[in-house]
Give the backbone structure.
Amino acid sequence: MTTMKRISVRTRRTLTALGTAAATLGTVLATTTPASAAVTKFCTQAFAKAGYGCFYSSDDRIEVLDNYADGLRSVVVWYVADNGNGNKILDRGECHNAKGAGKTATCDYDFPEGRKIFINFAVVARNGANGADQYPTNAIIGYVSGR
């Protein structure tokens, strides 16, 4: 629960609003386009100042790349929710990259499968592990099951 307290109110509202809208849109797309079943990688914009993050639904892995040598770490802030249960948040966390510019950090997770579980994530830059969120990217939605 402490993770979400560190996220600014604006970022939290954006993640929640985009998560609900995208989960609804994702459900529509998943039921109308069979090709969507092959999607297993969901990413933020590639050259964002905060960094670049991807979620791989095939193995519940998050990667975060630090794009700039600015002394800040890149952090993927995420939550996993159940679209089939009123978007109930099941888990939340962060994947930190303190390795420096041009380096990638990987975080492995084991999210629930078999239902309409989705991940909502964005990348922020921080000065240290608990610094203020800076330069947040747009939130990205991905299905854990790889819909």
